[in-house]
Automatic annotation (TrEMBL):
GO terms for molecular function: catalytic activity. This is Oxidoreductase. Residues 29-262 form the AB hydrolase-1 domain. The lineage of its organism: Bacteria, Bacillati, Actinomycetota, Actinomycetes, Kitasatosporales. SUPFAM superfamilies: alpha/beta-Hydrolases (SSF53474).
Length: 271
């Protein structure tokens, strides 16, 4: 578990955020945003590779990974967009390159379109961006989160393990699988897992999806060809909505492109 640690803390409007940076501070900044139900851990390989050329910032969103998880915490897309804007100000980053996966894609888009966050460029990796979204399981849990939160720990663990594994096409390494599941275990983790699903509301992307035509920065959309969580058709649709956007399809990758094909994803980002 010591191969990826976030050593710094920021007190955000939604609780304590753990973050860190890699690379030379004098180089152009890159910020990586994770999705759900994972954490910055999924970016470890890409972050380390990018840090040879850039100053890379990584963080666990409130309610995820090693960041604060607490009862009554606001971990919605609206809250995360505000927190990201706060972090950019805290880091004093004027126009970083931003790379955002899944739920993080919606966070980056909301921060840019609603809160005035400025980016040098934007790369969206299998993002939550267009309606309808959410797997059948995700929607079921969202409607019945209080019931699922009462599952015995062993059943909860089995459910989360199966859910996380379904995001990968070739399958996760056992140690990686364990690391992705671990933050959601125990009383605090279990409550946090169902809390973040309960607060995932499509209205937060509905508020911005008709404004994607306003995006003028260079935009790349990457998509795992084997993504069963969000079909690749959404990638084509999103590119059509953002002026000048390019689509890079990643063969052999599911939704967790960072785990399934990190080299191919890195190549697309560097291009």
């Amino acid at each position: 578990m010591s191969d990826w640690q976030l050593t710094r803390t920021f007190r955000s409007s939604s609780g304590e955020v753990r973050w860190d940076s890699l690379g030379d501070p004098g180089r152009h900044p890159v910020v990586l945003l994770h999705g759900t139900p994972v954490s910055s851990y999924v970016w470890r390989a890409v972050a380390r590779a990018l840090s040879r050329r850039h100053h890379v910032f990584v963080w666990d969103m409130p309610g995820y990974g090693t960041s604060e998880k607490s009862a009554g915490q606001d971990v919605s897309l609206a809250a995360q967009g505000r927190v990201f804007t706060e972090l950019l100000a805290h880091w004093e980053l004027a126009e970083p390159r931003v790379v955002a996966h899944d739920f993080g894609g919606a966070v980056a888009l909301r921060a840019h379109l609603l809160h005035g966050a400025r980016y040098h460029s934007l790369a969206l990796v299998d993002p939550v961006a267009l309606a309808p979204w959410g797997t059948p399981f995700f929607r079921l849990v969202g409607k019945n989160s209080e019931v699922f939160d009462q599952l015995p720990p062993a059943l909860h663990r089995a459910l989360v393990r199966e859910y996380v594994s379904s995001a990968s096409s070739p399958g996760l390494h056992p140690a990686v699988h364990d690391r992705l599941v671990e933050p959601w275990l125990g009383a605090t983790g279990q409550a946090a897992f169902y809390r973040q699903i309960a607060q995932a509301d499509q209205r937060y992307t509905d508020e911005v999806q008709d404004r994607y035509g306003e995006i003028t920065i260079p935009t790349l959309v990457c998509w795992g060809e084997d993504d069963t969580w969000i079909p690749v058709d959404k990638g084509h649709e999103l590119v059509a909505r953002i002026p000048g956007a390019r689509l890079a399809l990643i063969p052999g990758a599911g939704h967790l492109v960072q785990e399934d094909a990190p080299a191919a994803l890195l190549a697309a980002l560097l291009d």
